[in-house]
Amino acid sequence: MYRVCFVCTGNICRSPMAESVFRAQVERAGLGALVEVDSAGTGGWHEGDGADPRTVSVLEAAGYTQAHRARQFRASWFSRLDLVIALDSGHLRDLRALAPTPQDAAKVRLLRSFDPVARAGHDDVPDPYYGSLERFEECLELVEAAGPGLLDAVREAMKEHTA
C-alpha cells in the first residue's frame, strides 16, 4: 500500500479538498486498492470537526464525495507515509521541521510542484478560509490541476517500490 497525506493548516479547507479530489483520481485510475489517501492539519484547532461547509459545497458541486473529520498531523506518522503533500510553503517548512529524519523530510512535497503549469514562486494553494465561495472554487481548480502529475509520480514511485 502506498500512503499519501495532504496537509494544510486546520484540515478543514484545502487538505480535505485535496484528499477528496486525489482519492477520486486514484479510484478512476484503478489504484484504489493500492493507494491510501488521507489528510491532516499542522494545527489541532479543528480536530474532530467536519470540513468547512464551503469546501463541502464546492466538492459536491464538482461531483466529489467526502466524509471528513479534521485531525492534527503527528511526527510519528512519517514512518508509515510514503508522501506528505503540503498545500503551501509554510506547511512545507513546518512539516520538514517536524520530520524526525532527513529521509522523512524528503517525503514532503508541495502540491503545486506536480502541476506542470505552476510557475516558480506561485506554488502555494492560497487559503480560501477568509474568502468567498469563489476562493474555494479557485482552490479546487488548483488542486485538480496538480492531480494528474501527482498521480504519475505515485505510479512511478510504486514501480520503484516493486522493482
Q: Secondary-structure map with pairings?
A:
Layout: E1 2-8, H1 14-28, E2 35-41, H2 53-61, E3 83-86, H3 89-98, H4 102-105, E4 108-110, H5 133-162
Parallel strand pairs: 1-2, 1-3, 3-4
Detailed description of the structure:
- This protein is an alpha/beta fold and 163 residues long.
- Strand 1, helix 1 and strand 2 (35-41) form a beta-alpha-beta unit.
- It has helices spanning 14-28, 53-61, 89-98, 102-105, 133-162, and strands at 2-8, 35-41, 83-86, 108-110.
- The protein has a four-stranded parallel sheet with strand order 2-1-3-4.
Residue runs with pLDDT of under 50 for 5 or more positions:
none
Helix tally equals: 5
Main sheet characteristics: 4 strands, parallel
Tell me the total number of β-strands.
4
- Percent helix, as a range, is 40-55%
